[in-house]
Structures are given as C-alpha cells and as structure tokens.
C-alpha cells in the first residue's frame, strides 16, 4: 500500500503538473504515454513492439493522438486521419512482399490497437487545449467513479456486475461510483461556476452519469483484454498500480464521449 501511495503521488504530480503547464511539455508526455501503452498491448499479445508492425502501429497511434496540424499545417485540419491512413496503407502494402506470411487479418490487432490508444489520447489533448476545467472534470469523474465503486462495493456490494470479466465488481459498487462522480462534478461546478459548461444542471447530472458509466465500461474493456491474454496487469511501469493502460483505460473512453456530446 505504501508503494502504491508513493507511486500515485509522484506520478500524479508529474502528470497534473505538466497538464497544467500544457503546450509542448504535456504533448511530449502524452506521446510517451502512447508509446508505452502500445508496447503494453503488444506485450500482452506476445508481439514485439520493435517489429515492423509494432513500429508502424505506434507511429499510427502517435499520428492520431498528437496535434499534427500544429506542427504540419500544410497537411490540413484532418492531418491526424491523413497520417493514420498513410501508415495503415503502408502496413497493408507490406502484405504484398511477405508471400502470404502477413495477411489482412494480421493487420487487425495493430490497427485496432493504434486506433484505440490514439483516439483516446487525441481527445485527452483536445480537452486540455479546449478547457482546463473540462479536462480536470473528466479526471475527477473517473477518479471519483473508481473510488466510489471500490468503497461502496466493499461495504454494500452483493450483486456481481459481470463476474466473467471482473469478478470483484458489483452493481452496488457501480452505482456508488456514478453517485460519487455526480457529487464531485457538482462540487466543481459550485466552486467554479464561471468555468463550468453553460449547461442546465439536470442535463449536466445526466451527462456526468453517462461519463461515469462509460468510464466503467472502459475499465471493463481493459479487464476483458487482460483476461483474454492471461495477464494480471497491462504492465509494471507504475509499481503498485500496474501499467499505463491500467491507469488510463477509463479516460481513453471518457474523453471521446465527452467530445461527442459537445463538452469540448
């Protein structure tokens, strides 16, 4: 527990500090997180991240996640998708020269991994560029959901949520996570009303509930991946916490849905 707390404090301070600073330093950090997350996925699949498909998939994830228009303005506003597509076509073109050893189906895992990681971190950066309040609200919704689900689940949890994927999660814990997220979001809005989205309070409560549920879905998706590949944690880079995917699985889902629903 001591190791977990120390890791959480140090890693959290670095992440939040650079997030507040924003700009290139935070983008570099996100780029590193993308690379590590991709390496974790490939390791779970027992593939070499330094293989041609690993390198190309990581480049695709970086192309999708980082603000490429800022650095390559001539590529246009859809530069992320353009570069992502270019790397995908290169991966598909390699099939021609492998005599059937590398097939269309083999591209599926690297491509989906790059999209999964890339689109999540792309929206994380977009949220930070749009509004520091929205960015922090997303983080606090995720953290409040995790904490609420854990404590309520331990105290009141009886009904298993999806035992085949995550045997310790309960329906009661899930509802506790949603309520915790709503309470935390309302406190933020009450403390900083001028920074909060100009949205009806009842609609905001509904949105926060959706984000909390989506965050729990993101966590369950990663649990399903780990169960499928037979691993306990996605990685070991964060002692006591696991890997980068273990810490960002919910956010990878929450930020794109926040964007889809118009919060940034």
From TrEMBL:
Positions of transmembrane segments: 6-37, 49-69, 81-100, 107-126, 132-153, 174-195
Any one GO cellular component localisation term in the record: plasma membrane
Superkingdom of the organism of origin: Bacteria
Enzyme class, UniProt record, top EC level: transferase
Signal peptide: none
Localization annotation: Cell membrane
Catalytic activity: a 1,2-diacyl-sn-glycero-3-phosphate + CTP + H(+) = a CDP-1,2-diacyl-sn-glycerol + diphosphate
One family name in Pfam for this protein: CTP_transf_1
MF (Gene Ontology): phosphatidate cytidylyltransferase activity
Pathways involved: Lipid metabolism; Phospholipid metabolism; CDP-diacylglycerol biosynthesis; CDP-diacylglycerol from sn-glycerol 3-phosphate: step 3/3
InterPro entries: PC_trans
Membrane topology (UniProt): Multi-pass membrane protein
Entry EC no(s): 2.7.7.41
GO biological process, one term: CDP-diacylglycerol biosynthetic process
Keywords in alphabetical order: Cell membrane, Lipid biosynthesis, Lipid metabolism, Membrane, Nucleotidyltransferase, Phospholipid biosynthesis, Phospholipid metabolism, Transferase, Transmembrane, Transmembrane helix
Family per similarity comment: Belongs to the CDS family.
Protein name: Phosphatidate cytidylyltransferase
The organism of origin for this protein: Pseudolactococcus insecticola
Lineage: Bacteria, Bacillati, Bacillota, Bacilli, Lactobacillales
